[in-house]
Design goal:
Blueprint lengths: L1 E4 L4 E10 L7 H5 L1 E6 L5 E7 L2 E4 L7 E6 L4 E5 H4 L2 E4 L2 E4 L1 E3 L3
Parallel strand pairs: 2-5, 3-7
Antiparallel strand pairs: 1-2, 1-10, 2-6, 3-4, 4-5, 6-7, 8-9
C-alpha cells in the first residue's frame, strides 16, 4: 500500500517485522535479506523474507513497519510512530496518509 508522509514523500509499505525463531541461519536467511535503516536510531538492520513474512534477528527490532521510498531505500519505523498523529500548524494530522493515485 502506498502512503504519503505529511512532509510530502511517497512510500510503499511492505509489512511488519517479526522475530526470526528458526534454529539456525537457514539458507533462506543468508541468501534473501535486505538492509533497512531504522528511522529513530539510524541503525542498519538486516531483514529477511522467509515464508512470506519479514524477519529480524533482535527482538527489539520487531513490530516495525518496513517500507520503501521512491529511490529504492528500505526504512523501518516503529508501528505506533508510523500511525501516530503529529501537530502541524496547530492541527493534528496523521504522520502517513493512504495515498491513492
Amino acid at each position: 500500500m502506498f502512503y504519503r508522509h505529511y512532509k510530502g514523500g511517497i512510500y510503499y509499505t511492505l509489512g511488519l517485522t517479526s522475530l526470526y525463531e528458526g534454529t539456525g541461519l537457514e539458507r533462506e536467511w543468508t541468501h534473501n535479506y535486505l538492509s533497512a535503516i531504522h528511522t529513530e536510531t539510524g541503525r542498519k538492520i538486516a531483514v529477511s523474507l522467509i515464508d512470506g513474512r519479514f524477519h529480524v534477528l533482535d527482538e527489539e527490532d520487531t513490530n516495525l513497519v518496513l517500507y520503501l521510498d521512491m529511490v529504492g531505500r528500505f526504512w523501518l519505523r516503529p508501528r505506533d510512530i508510523f500511525f501516530e498523529t503529529v501537530k502541524v500548524d496547530g492541527k493534528e494530522i496523521r504522520r502517513f496518509l493512504n495515498y491513492y493515485k
